[in-house]
Design goal:
- With 281 residues, this protein is of the alpha/beta class.
- 47% of the residues lie in helices and 15% in strands.
- It is built from 13 helices and eight strands.
- The strands form three sheets. Strands 4-3-2-5 form a four-stranded mixed sheet.
């Protein structure tokens, strides 16, 4: 993604924030375009190039009604393995090509002093990301609106690890997920630190296809802990690998998209972007 695309995403994010703040007024295309300092023609074209659909169509994918519809569908079929394996394209299951390996206590003891971590900054349709890897897989991926803050967060997770500002094949495969054909994805390995409960939640998130949504309560039911919705929420919030472990696909049971560690507008953009891609695939 080039610099212009990053600028486009920032405008789209501003547009989404404006629409969320003024949804009761149902602002027109002209009003939204004016808010992001573009002509209606250029805003429509820029938005369609980024999202693959018009602003009006995109809004349908992040609307409360659409979210409720997806949740109703989700409760009936999301975790039905026979149904899911038949999915293709951008709706293909994450768990067919993303694999999680939990770190051993020895790997992260004493602040990760036994870990060697490569890290680099990359581009995505949703802004810059910091991606980091051990020899076994991706250990961290976060949207990096401020690069130094993103690296400080990584370093606080493994304060005594050995760091190298190096791009490797593991990182490249992870970033390719934003641009490649998901009908034939490269395998991506994740190597993350987490409790048994957190790992179970994160592995369950991998079953949510792009363009679909679920709730904290539904995940709690899936992992046989029906009263653990709050603990599930904490595990989702502590997800160390943005997008690849799709915590952005978890919303409130009311259909409200809710908060997101890297910004609620970014979450809405990701949900809408995936919804458009899954329909157009």
């Amino acid at each position: 993604m080039n610099t212009q695309q990053i600028i486009d995403f920032e405008r789209i994010k501003d547009a989404i924030e404006y629409l969320h703040a003024n949804y009761k007024l149902q602002p027109s295309l002209d009003e939204v375009a004016e808010h992001v300092h573009l002509s209606p023609y250029h805003f429509q074209r820029m938005f369609s190039e980024w999202a693959g659909v018009s602003p009006k169509q995109f809004l349908q994918y992040i609307s409360l009604a659409h979210a409720k519809s997806l949740l109703k569908e989700t409760r009936a079929s999301l975790f039905d393995a026979a149904h899911e394996v038949g999915l293709s394209g951008t709706s293909r299951l994450h768990d067919l090509f993303v694999h999680i390996e939990g770190m051993t206590p020895g790997e992260y003891k004493n602040g990760g002093e036994n870990l060697s971590i490569n890290y680099s900054l990359a581009e995505s349709p949703f802004g810059n990301i910091l991606v980091a890897s051990t020899p076994k897989g991706i250990c961290y991926m976060a949207f990096a609106d401020k690069e130094e803050e993103a690296f400080d967060s990584l370093r606080s997770t493994y304060p005594n690890a050995k760091y190298s500002n190096t791009t490797d094949r593991l990182q490249q495969n992870a970033v390719f997920v934003f641009t490649q054909d998901w009908s034939n994805p490269a395998e991506i390995k994740l190597h993350v630190k987490g409790t048994d409960f957190q790992l179970k939640v994160w592995e369950t998130l991998l079953h949510i296809p792009a363009g679909k949504l679920t709730t904290y309560g539904d995940i709690a039911q899936k992992i046989d802990s029906p009263k653990a919705s709050r603990a599930v929420g904490s595990a989702v919030g502590n997800n160390p690998v943005a997008f690849l472990i799709p915590c952005h696909r978890v919303i409130q049971s009311s259909g409200i998209l809710g908060e997101y560690h890297w910004g609620s507008s970014r979450k809405a953009a990701m949900i809408g972007w995936e919804g458009a891609k899954s329909v157009n695939d």
